[in-house]
Amino acid sequence: MQRVDQLRAREARALPGITLPWTLAAAAFLLVAVLAGLAVGPVGLGVGAVARELLSHVPLLGVQSPLTDTEDAILWELRAPRVVLGLLVGAMLAAGGAAYQGVFRNPLADPYLLGAAAGAGLGATLVIAYGIGSGAGRDLRPVAAFAGATLGVTAAYLLGRSVGGRSTATLILAGVTVAAFLTAVQTFVQQNRSDTVQEVYAWILGQLETSGWRDVAIALPYVLVSTVLLLWHRRLLDVLAVGDDEAASLGVPVARVRLLVVAAATLGTAAAVALSGLIGFVGIIVPHAIRLLAGTSYRIVLPLSLAFGAGFLVLADLLARTVISPAELPIGVVTAFFGAPFFAVVLRTTRTVGP
Amino acid sequence: MHTRTLAAALAVLLAVALAACGADGESEAGQAPTTAAAETQAAAAFPVTVEADNGPVVLEERPTRIVSLSPTATESLFAIGAGEQVTAVDDESTYPEEAPRTDLSGFQPNIEAIAGYEPDLVVAGFDPGGLVEGLEKVGVPVLLQPAATNLEDAYEQIEELGDATGNPGEADELVTTMRKSIDELVGSASADAEGLSVYHEVSPDFFSATSQTFIGSVYELLGLENIADEAGAAAPDYPQLSAEYIVSADPDLIVLADTKCCGQTAQKVAQRPGWGHMAAVREDHVLLVNDDIASRWGPRTVEFVETVAQGLQGAEEQ
Question: Do B247 and A78 touch (CB under 8 A)?
């Protein structure tokens, strides 16, 4: 029996990596998403004009930008930061989801597990409900959400450990418990301050409306650190997927790897959630769609989740901006409305089971 | 044979019931004038029936323990001299100062807590969670006055409050004054407003108000074009606009109704990414208004129209 497990573990290590066609597909998808995100919006700048504007920044081509000052500001100060933030948040949510699923061997795990989202929600709600009179509320929101997310995960982790079980089920149950408690507090605060309830809801539904490049600069370091750490551990995640004991027998420091991956995923997710609100579903459907279509090794799932998650969110935001233009839809509505049917189709056509 | 007996029995029952009703009605009608005669002149009009949004509301006597769950109604009640009849107002009723503010909520009303003030009239801005039905069940008349969508609605609500509280004269007077002031302001401002557009900001995440709303109807009256109307198909009243759209629409006037809630200032608006290019920001046509006045449809609407009219003078001079 032991022998069989070791064989399976070794097999897991030998799973094929990412293939060239998938690399190209991911790159093409990202490129299309970014160009579409820049070219289309509530204000019709014209695809051609945007293309010429982009080319005008390439030296030696001698292309003149056709955009007026206002159009230039719309493109570079409003639209571009939003596209870049979409890339960062989408990549982080999808890769974070994939990592959580691997580390907990639970197909339903996503960045919102372990109290990260509930904690972020409580932090943001507190700021919106009580801190707003000072006028600094909007600037404090990401900080509070980040603190809340970290607090939620830490509480879940400590609770899970104090119960004593080494199993992932204990940790997940602790996370569910902490999340339920934090959500209750958040709802209480929200109901108590009915004058700000609309703003709280807007944040909960998710939005990529940015305060320009500043938000991007805030998110970038966290997302980079988190991404590097997750990609670093992609092979170990493959081994962990087989089982704790099996991985340990192969010399993998299971507890340390799990803690590190969870910490990295939480760090990135918290930064993303803090800036964009609670955008659901990306962390579940993107990694699973990739498992079903491209392969189950984390050497495939993690990098492709980063790329497709990023592109998916940029396209979702494109719809959020344009469907009822010049009004806006919350992006969380779009990710679920278009993501759910898409995933249903993938599920039906492939008929294989996830991790 | 059987059916005929049954029919006869029913007819008798019906006749008795009708007679009982008639007698009841008579005794009430007979009673009212005698008690009214002993009361002050203000009560002479009672009982009154006020046609409100929730149908006819009957008030047997002049109410003296009014609970207002609507900040607008609170302002109007005090403006028509019914302030002394008000026992409690909701937590959002911040004006006037002397209004007896409590922790009652108009958004999530608790019927028991309201009934605890033993009101003889409750004025509500809307009817969440069966508020009206619940209060009527415990015998408290409710006047439902939902958000007005234009000035005429607002005037009508003030008249309703006047009738319901026994202050119809003061209510008439207030409406006449408001009407006159606003008509004058509109008359002198409409030339300034010609061809100008406005962006009304409800919150810093770009929620705005179309012409379908009360505040929008005021801009319409002034002759301003409202840039939020473009989004009317998506959200007919308070759409969330995209920043891109606002910047490219380049409105001549920006009205910030999120100064109190969210500390917005002309300076902060100028610092928003991309907004520095807008003409209204460059030429300082950013009006700061009190959120409360801009979100209510009470007597202080006159102040709001005045602020906008003054702002228009500046915008037109440029």
Answer: yes
Chain A residue at shortest CA distance from B244: A74
Does the distance separating the beta carbons of B241 and A137 come in below 8 Å? no
Residue A156 region, left (φ>0) first, then alpha (ψ -120 to 50), else beta?
alpha
Q: What is the pLDDT along chain B (318 residues), one digit of tens a residue?
A: 454 554 555 454 444 444 444 444 344 444 444 433 434 555 567 899 999 888 899 999 999 999 999 999 999 999 999 999 999 999 999 999 999 999 998 888 889 899 999 999 999 998 888 899 999 888 999 999 999 999 999 999 999 999 999 999 999 999 999 999 999 999 988 888 888 999 999 988 899 999 999 999 999 999 999 999 998 887 889 998 988 899 999 999 999 999 887 788 999 999 998 898 899 999 999 999 999 999 999 999 999 999 999 888 877 655
CATH code that applies to domain A2-42+85-349: 1.10.3470.10
Task: Give CA separation, A273 vs A117, A143, B71, B194, in Å.
Answer: 7, 11, 35, 45
The pLDDT tens digits of the residues spanning A265-277 come to 888 888 888 888 8
Give the one of A71, A137, A209 whose C-beta lies nearest to B243's C-beta. Answer: A209
Cβ–Cβ of B247/A138 closer than 8 Å? no
Domain assignments of chain A as residue spans, ordered by start: 2-42+85-349
On whether the CB atoms of residues A157 and A221 are closer than 8 A, the answer is: no
* CA distance linking residue A149 with residue A270, whole number of Å: 6
Cα(B289)–Cα(B268) distance, integer angstroms: 15
Q: Are B57 and B164 in contact (CB under 8 A)?
A: yes
What's the token pair of residue B165? 């509280």
Structure-token pair, residue A97: 């989801």
CA A165 to chain B, closest CA, distance in angstroms equals 43
Outline where A250-297 has alpha helix (H).
Answer: 254-276, 282-293
Cβ atoms A327, B231 nearer than 8 A: yes
Residue A231 to residues A169, A208, A296: CA-CA distances in angstroms?
25, 25, 15
Interface of B with A (CB under 8 A): 92, 105, 107-108, 203-207, 230-231, 233-235, 239-245, 247-250, 261-264, 272-274, 276-278
pTM over 0.90: no
Which residues from chain B sit within 8 angstroms of residue A328, using beta carbons? 206, 240-242
Give the span between the Cα atoms of A267 and B34, in whole angstroms: 77
